[in-house]
Amino acid sequence: MRARHSGDFSGSVAAMRAEPYVPPPAALLTLTEAHRAVVELLALHISRGRLHKIAPAGDGHPVMLLPGFMGGDGYSLSLRRFLSRLGYPAHGWGMGRNFGPREGVLEALEQRVDAMCQEYGTKISLVGHSLGGIFARELARELPDSIRQVISLGSPFGKGRMAASLPSRLFTALNPPEELTIEQDILHEAPPVPTTAIYSRGDGIVNWRTTLQVDGHAQTESIRVRGSHCGMTLNPAIWLVIAERLALPADRWQPFRGGSLSRLVYPRVS
Question: Which domains does the chain have, with CATH numbers?
């Protein structure tokens, strides 16, 4: 097992307190979050058949999907089935509900990544929703030789994330800052692998500004979509982005373009 960061985390706690203040989402976005997620689900049912026809076929490399805070593998079941039909061995994280980076969680995920890489004989791609995306980025930081790429969906890794996230009080109660096993002061930095951050200005759970990849490198990008936070694993536009990103050859990464409907479906790609 790899040795994780350990010791005095007072520096990380101080860094979190010194971060700029980013307010939580507007009340209207929060109050309409569930309703908009239902609209995304309906849009998915309408467009599912078309998605299977236009999405690029997969190359067979393994993909792991990591759930958001308090979520489990059931939340990504439809997306995993979609990816499986495209030709990817799509797996959940297999650890029940995501209560945060508690002791032993990331170590267990590292072991799971190692096992999948050995089973399939190739690198693994990670797709994480919200907190799951933060886990995915940390895994790629620790295991860059095992991770092909990371795709985060509304993951608040940017500076000011604690004030900008509505579930932050519950998260802090379950995961006291002084006990966190992830270095908080580097979360905003991109891991050393191709990294795509998908975000929505309609996010009613976290401020979208904290889900952008600002401190990136030559193989990082941020893609804006229209939709809610809770509906991101059910958003057909996001499904198409994920399929397109996963289909890129491992050694020929290029930024997402979006095609002829880019401005309508994907208002901003950076």
Answer: 16-216+227-250+263-269 (3.40.50.1820)
